[in-house]
Amino acid sequence: MTNAFEKQSHQGGALWGQPAVPAAVESRAVLHVVSARDYAGAGTVLNDLSDVITGATNPPIGGVLKRIMDLVIAGAALVFAAPVIILVGLLIKITAGGPPIFSHSRVGFGGRSFDCYKFRSMVRNSDEVLSAYLDANPDARREWEETHKIRNDPRVTLLGRLLRKSSLDELPQLINILRGDMSCVGPRPIVKDELRRYGEHQAEYLATRPGLTGLWQVSGRSSMDYDNRVALDSQYVRNWSVWLDVVILLRTIVAVMRVDRAS
To answer: What's the pLDDT at 116?
Structure first.
């Protein structure tokens, strides 16, 4: 997950150490990744994702086995997390007002759009706040255009920062997993405009359900640029196995417990 549930590889090493950046990231000859600064011209921009064929006629990677794992893990997690979900919802309602959960359209398996759920961690007029902040801070605008994220985001509330640091803002996505929109492990869900940044690896992103956590999240997401994110997502799809999912989930638990590494 920003966080290890959002925020945030199976490298064959110890599960509990800091994972090294995969070789696929270090060798651009292995995975040709379109530079983020050139993404505007990277391949064909998909104006209508409903026309995407790749991944739409085949099941997501992992098939029935991965889906069963998702249902069991997400179902159990939702039951255990229910008291926390209720408490967080009440705190957001009291401190910020408005609905505690919001949804935003994301690109899912086969190019299908879905509503991705999160606890609301931003002020209610977040679009206006972001626009004014980027206009006044050119460096922040460059960061936003490069990664679609900014440090010290002015839209995030104090409670929202705590939720992001602890990964709790992603808990509502357990519902997305049960609905079949997402998987426990996979590439993080992206908005439509981000898909072009995947260049020739668009088909790999579309071949699986987006994940609550993934290879990028447990490989030091806060210090990686978008090129490396694409490389890690591509590596995950190409090398998927049940064992890889188990390793990522275990590393996610460690990352969530170490909130200093979660953002």
So the answer is: 97
